[in-house]
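USER:
Class, as today's exercise, take the chain set out below, and explain how the chain folds.
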Amino acid sequence: MNYDLNYRYRRALQPDGLRTIGTAQLAVADAIADCKRAGVPSETDPAVILLARHLGRIATGIDPELTHEADLALRSQCMTRIGELKSKPALVALVRGRSHFNEEEKAAFHAEARKALRAVANAAGLTPDSYDLRSNRAGPAVSGEAILHTDTLYVMVSKTLTTPGREVMFRRCRNREDYVGAANNYCDIALLAQPAKFLAHTARETGVRIGAAQPQLV
């Protein structure tokens, strides 16, 4: 399954901070890289094309704040794509293939990671008072981490401290005051986006079955 983000589409629609050739060129390169990670052809991607046009206008001295009728169809495609992606798991796309996050993406990472961990707790049938959910944004050079801590299972999501395919760490613990626990186990971020499968996997690896493990509405 391919995962995409709406970040480049939103950036293409509102390129307010892209006022120089250097910043606009970097935005185009970032958008092309996002397409590659998502398995989307960059040559026809509306965000890439809009950002490339924005770069060209800066380079030729055209006011980048002006709107152009030729861009209307591309802008419409970007807005449509943003709407489609609202229901898709953004966490996987945020984590895969990125060596760093900008501030907007970092905030989105923490929001999406907490959302995914809450979905796991809900799928397990846990009540809000039976687990802790927290996050640590840490410094600008790292992703920080989001943590689900139950009485028997500790789960941490982090981009910075793991390698590809090992973005989620989980282990058995004795209680919610146990921050060391048993041996660490790891899995791919995509598994966390499927709460029932993630719970089955953690149960096999650790022997811990948390809550009723019955899916509930998030």
Summary: Helices lie at 7-13, 21-38, 46-59, 72-85, 90-95, 103-123, 189-192, 195-206. Strands lie at 131-136, 145-150, 153-157, 168-172, 185-187.
